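Hey L., structure's done. Input below.
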Amino acid sequence: MPAPLSVIIPTLNAAGELPQCLASLMPGAEAGLIREVLLSDGGSGDATAEIADAAGASIIESEPGRGKQLAAGAEAARGDWLLFLHADTALTRDWVERARDHISNAPGKAAYFTLAFRSDHPMAKHVAGRANRRAKLLGLPYGDQGLLLPRSLYKEAGGYQDLPLMEDVALVRAIGKRRLNMLSAEARTSAAKYERDGWRKRSWKNAWLITRYLFGASPEKLAADYR
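Output:
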């Protein structure tokens, strides 16, 4: 019986962060959980393809755009379960046990990991904690937290849409809070944008963008304001 899990990573010039992401997946391959790792690439001009090849991952060429790339990866995947993961996110080693438990015990539900930032800044834990509370309360995890779900649920929820922003929010809203579980393993993601823009400014900007989206603002308008 083939391993159940296809891991899908959207990439665009991700050579700087990708090795850490791929290394965090190795325990899943060793445990027989991962069937394949697919990089859905939007036209990288750096060493992304070489890094993927060295790690045994496959490259899928896609038009650029995270929603398009995620959808293309899902279409090519062969596993009964899908794990969508950002290239600048690395999972803690216990993700394998947590994911396996979820697959066995919650076969009709999706799951995401506990957010943490790879930063020693004093605001890092505060911002991550607030995001985790929001995810639990509202069923709105960040895309940085990964998304693990059965292929059947992915299709039922309509998959990833071709949106310039909020493609992750659109999908988890379609899945619904009652079908989302939070796993205790951590998704440790890059803090580069927070450190560039300022922790308070960036976190409040993200919260304001999501609020506007939930009240009907177009992803196109939000994407222009996000840059």
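The chain has one domain: 5-226. Residues 123-138 form the longest helix (16 residues).

-- N.
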